[in-house]
Design goal:
alpha+beta, 6-stranded antiparallel beta sheet, 4-stranded antiparallel beta sheet, globular
Length: 210
Amino acid sequence: MLRFLISLVALLGVASMSAQMTPRSVVTTAPEKVLLTIDASTLLDMLDYYENGVARTVRNKMGEDAVITEMTGSTVTIATGEAHSITFAILPYGKSSVIMVIDRVDTPDTDAVISFYDSRWKPLDSRKLLRTPALADWVGKVSAERMREIENALPFLMADAQYNPDTATLSFTPQTSGYVSVENADKVKEALAPRLDYVWSGKSFKPVKR
């Protein structure tokens, strides 16, 4: 009986944590590897400043400027250094929530990597929550010959990602200016959709037809 009660209390604690997740609780419990260049005390200072109406710039572990650029009821975005920013978003998932992390690196074009975690920062299978766009999604229906031309002009494709909590929409925009040759720039720009949108269904992101 005692073991059952202990297990029940533990389960209720997990459920309570999920229900009470806030941007502050998410970033302050994030593993060190997620916010590698910002230590815990500096992060708390940043949050305190922002919540008191001051988006104050601080120094990260590398001596670079770091600042919270945006915070809503379910998201927070932090510029962690000169060429890196990260967005944390709390997504409703059934009776609980999941954490989406959008990690951006400027190379100089922005390349975004998206990952998902449960309320205890256990990694989730991202493929079940989001099928990231492939080249075919950006191009649409074209002939095999046309696709080969695009592939030859575009050695790889980077994309930025932005999440709008008001519409639960994740938007990808192609980033090609830093590595596509001048002679192929117009061809690539013409071939790619300017943006791809995905809407959170409560279980996964679903592509919006264009």
